[in-house]
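Incident review: delayed structure delivery

Summary: a single-chain prediction request sat in the queue longer than the usual turnaround. Root cause was a stuck worker, restarted by the on-call engineer. No data loss occurred. The affected request and its eventual output are reproduced below so the record is complete for anyone auditing the incident later.

Affected input:
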Amino acid sequence: MDQERFAEEEGERRRGVPERREEVVEETRREQEVDEEQGDSDYIGDEEEILMEFKPARRRFLKEYTAGLIWLIIAVAFLTRDWAFPFESELIKPELLGASFFLSAAFIFFIYSEARRNVEKYKITDTAVYEEVGQFSQRVTDIPFMKLQRCGIHRPFIEKIVGIGDVRVDAGRDYFLLKGIANPEEVERLIEKKMREVMSGGNIGALHQ
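Output delivered after worker restart:
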């Protein structure tokens, strides 16, 4: 009887091992999904609420995009028109060489502009303003609303024409610019609203520390 009971317990234990393994695998998968959802925002506290998240507008890199577009037009012109080149031969096709060169230049300008745009990210939470710079090696700067003294819009002539602007958040010695954003007025209003909430909450002294 003892041997039969031992065999039954051993069988139940072995049947439970795959089930436990499946539970561990499922738990690990859930943890990975949580990590992926958090992404590169793990510097934000669990209780912080992200109110706005944005990055520079493409219009900030209008010069680079325009240069890329010009090179692209020249590349298309090389392919669509008949050009007479003195060194043209069966092996050398100057129009293909020219189109390849200008197409590569256009590609470089477009990739450079997108890379520059995605290297800067800004977040506004219910407690602070964050600036995140870098793609692989990231540098994060934050200014809590309780230390923020002022914010304002800086808009040079060209940025005013294309409808973008910089928002400067200033805490005395510490400050940074939210550069080339598409909605500077909306961002400024949100930051000023959070500053007023901090002041009305009795943190006027902390605001100027």
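Verification: The longest strand covers residues 174-181.
Action items: add queue-age alerting; document worker restart procedure.
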